[in-house]
């Protein structure tokens, strides 16, 4: 008999948390044992007998939640954004003390988004210019989005490795920041608009041509297969996995 997957959801009353509560409740092979919101004591996770934690909270809280899970031997599936290199390094150090634990940090759980990011990283070295436009609902707390940051990091790494110079815009004067944030050498523009959920375009420009790689999440159900895959796979991937692509076979 396989080991039960007993799931505690943190941020359970949020937009993503509520969708995850439904998805986990509907999955016959997963047991939802705890739902925590802001102010709840993390001890409740242990009291409920959880083996896995899903973190869908806020960037300021996620690290504390995940470190608590790892210290207590629980696997974690994390969708919350804001995991910069300093936080990831502290998480790696904690995981080194608990080598059996698997943590997935997934900037985006939607399969189409994971593929779009992978395609963009692969294409990036062939184009002179690359910029990212991310578009989200106006209640999003962070900008740029975690997906855009991760996409820019992977594009930046691919271009560095290939020796591609920075996208050309040296003569543009930008006193008001209209050129957006710069992440790993890539300009990232954030739109917040009523009616949107989560969308991203990577614009790749060469002489006389443009390639646009666009992904749209119209509904948060798009994220749920990735959350469930994370829960089913985390224990099979000890240590830190950054990006759902680490659990998929995307090939070259
Ligand atoms: N990886 C992915 O595919 C996706 C990631 N996200 C990210 O997930 C996070 C949550 O997004 P939304 O659900 O839209 O936000 P939300 O604001 O609707 O939900 C966050 C919830 O966390 C709760 N919370 C705050 N501190 C907490 C704590 N210490 N313990 C437990 N709960 C706590 C809040 O009260 C709120 O209910 C954001 O960082 C967002 O960027 C969102 C969509 C998809
Ligand atoms: O807050 C959101 O909504 C989303 N957050 C994640 C991000 O910042 O990339 C994933 C997705 O874009 C939706």
From TrEMBL:
Residues the record lists as binding (S)-2,3,4,5-tetrahydrodipicolinate: 137, 146-147
Catalysed conversion reaction: (S)-2,3,4,5-tetrahydrodipicolinate + NADP(+) + H2O = (2S,4S)-4-hydroxy-2,3,4,5-tetrahydrodipicolinate + NADPH + H(+); (S)-2,3,4,5-tetrahydrodipicolinate + NAD(+) + H2O = (2S,4S)-4-hydroxy-2,3,4,5-tetrahydrodipicolinate + NADH + H(+)
SUPFAM superfamilies according to UniProt: Glyceraldehyde-3-phosphate dehydrogenase-like, C-terminal domain, NAD(P)-binding Rossmann-fold domains
Domain Dihydrodipicolinate reductase C-terminal, first and last residues per copy: 113-239
One of the protein's GO biological processes: diaminopimelate biosynthetic process
One cellular component term from this protein's GO annotations in UniProt: cytosol
The EC number(s) this enzyme carries: 1.17.1.8
Pathway the protein takes part in: Amino-acid biosynthesis; L-lysine biosynthesis via DAP pathway; (S)-tetrahydrodipicolinate from L-aspartate: step 4/4
NCBIfam families listed in its UniProt record: dapB
Role this protein plays: Catalyzes the conversion of 4-hydroxy-tetrahydrodipicolinate (HTPA) to tetrahydrodipicolinate.
Family from the record: Belongs to the DapB family.
Protein name, as recorded: 4-hydroxy-tetrahydrodipicolinate reductase
Source organism of the structure: Galactobacter valiniphilus
């Amino acid at each position: 008999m396989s080991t039960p997957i007993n799931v505690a959801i943190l941020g359970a009353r949020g937009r993503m948390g509520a969708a995850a509560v439904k998805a986990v409740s509907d999955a016959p092979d997963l047991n939802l044992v705890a739902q925590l919101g802001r102010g709840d004591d993390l001890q409740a996770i242990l009291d409920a007998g959880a083996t896995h934690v899903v973190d869908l909270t806020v960037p300021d809280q996620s690290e504390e939640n995940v470190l608590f899970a790892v210290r207590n031997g629980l696997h974690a599936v994390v969708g919350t954004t804001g995991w910069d290199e300093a936080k990831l390094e502290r998480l790696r150090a904690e995981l080194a003390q608990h080598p059996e634990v698997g943590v997935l940090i997934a900037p985006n759980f939607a399969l189409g988004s994971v593929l779009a990011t992978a395609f963009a990283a692969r294409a990036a070295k062939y184009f002179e210019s690359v910029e990212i436009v991310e578009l989200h609902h106006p209640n999003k707390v962070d900008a740029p989005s975690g997906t855009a940051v991760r996409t820019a990091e992977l594009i930046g790494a691919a271009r560095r490795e290939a020796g591609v110079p920075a996208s050309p815009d040296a003569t543009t004067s930008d006193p008001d920041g209209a050129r957006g944030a710069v992440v790993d050498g890539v300009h990232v523009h954030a739109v917040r608009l009523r009616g949107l959920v989560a969308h991203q375009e990577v614009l790749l420009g060469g002489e006389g041509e443009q390639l646009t790689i666009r992904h749209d999440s119209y509904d948060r159900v798009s994220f749920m297969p990735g959350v469930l895959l994370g829960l089913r796979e985390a224990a099979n991937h000890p240590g830190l996995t950054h990006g759902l692509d680490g659990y998929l076979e995307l090939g070259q």
